[in-house]
Write a structure and sequence with these properties.
The chain is built from 15 helices and 8 strands. It is α/β, with parallel strands linked by helices. It has one domain: Alpha-Beta Barrel (TIM Barrel). Helix 4 runs parallel beside helix 5.
Length: about 325
Amino acid sequence: MFKKPHCPIIAIEEHYWDPELAKHFTGSEAGRGGETDEKLYDLGSLRLKEMDAAGIDVQVLSHGAPSAQKLPIEIAADLTRAVNDRLGKVCAANPQRFAAFAALPTVDPQAAADELERTVTKLGFKGAMLHGMTNNEFLDHKKYWPIYERAEKLDVPLYFHPSLPHPKVTEIYYQDYAKDFPLVVRPGWGYTVETATQAIRLVLSGVFDAYPNLKIILGHFGETLPFLVWRIDASLKRPGQKPMSFRDIFCKNFYVTTSGFFSNPALLCCVMEMGTDHILFAIDWPFVSNMPGVEWMKDIPLSDEDKVKILSGNVKRLLKM
């Protein structure tokens, strides 16, 4: 077993599936059977056994993609409320090991904002996780801004997690190679492009001008944006553009996690651009095993003080744990 540091280890992108919600998933979003699905449906002994083996003290649980974001509007709010209530009971039964991000019915933005408030104030949830598009729309459109207004008011973060690219994007960008390399559409590249695009659009939309204390979390070391932030910022400051500082907004309002990305060069890039206070520990379980992420943390080229910040100090502050 990994020799634990003198701090808890809190992993914040750790997924599960609710059986009722998962029945609505179709095509490649539905489960493929086997060990991963078994782990997704487990909120007890199997999950805890793997956490204990790696020395992870707490998982912040979140529903896997696409979560509630593709539900028909007629059922979205009620079904999502039931999903969150069930997750709330799991966390209440074992509060030392589990916390939660809410699922939100984004097809109904006002209901999503209300559900965010309900889960935070009534169930003790730590924020919410959003997954890709809703009805093939990115979530920067103003009709979705009630969600951001409520998140700022509640002082909780929104975690933007990947989902599948728009079908036309998949067809044009990836179809030639998807048969031989199916994961190029997903974590290999498609997820990164989709989620980074959503983050850029959020900044360009002006939502952070309206809600300057809104906090956004991105997994996978920020979906390449820490590496690109200087160039994006410099490009957007060229003549003929609306004045803004992309870098200032990104480095103030965004946090990034280590989920599924255990790389020293990537870590150091994020540290140099954003500082250690904006980096959070995550695994991406069960799609990624716990042990490699925890073992990697032993030898990252940072001080023990910074390791403690990443493993739990930063997230305890951000999520008020």
